[in-house]
Design brief:
Blueprint lengths: L2 H30 L6 H21 L2 H19 L4 H28 L1
Helix pairs in contact: 1-2, 1-4, 2-3, 3-4
Length: about 110
């Protein structure tokens, strides 16, 4: 595989990961936040929060960078959904739990096949 094919496959993989993560964020936010939540909000949250958190973690080494990265993620998600840090934290935790549950079901079904 040449470098262009690798670049394209990496880009496609990142796009799929973004859309899947956005789906779980969307489900969590729809349950936890009042009002109508859109999938576009979830895509924006997944993209911006992850990029900015990764930038912070990359620029600030160690545990401090990781803590600040999480805080940045929470701030971005809270801003997009017009909610506070606690609700943003709950969205992240709930999205992670949903993703974990779906992964467990898929793994169990895969073993049965």
């Amino acid at each position: 595989m040449d470098s262009m094919e690798q670049w394209v496959s990496t880009l496609i993989g990142a796009l799929i990961a973004l859309l899947v993560n956005a789906f779980f964020i969307h489900v969590a936010a729809s349950i936890l936040v009042k009002g109508k939540q859109t999938y576009v909000q979830a895509i924006l949250a997944a993209l911006l929060a992850s990029l900015l958190a990764a930038l912070v973690v990359g620029l600030i080494p160690g545990v401090l960078g990781q803590i600040l990265g999480i805080l940045v993620w929470l701030i971005v998600v809270g801003a997009i959904y017009r909610t506070g840090l606690i609700k943003a934290l709950l969205i992240g935790l709930f999205a992670g739990l949903i993703q974990l549950g779906v992964s467990a079901v898929v793994a169990a079904v895969g073993k049965m096949l």
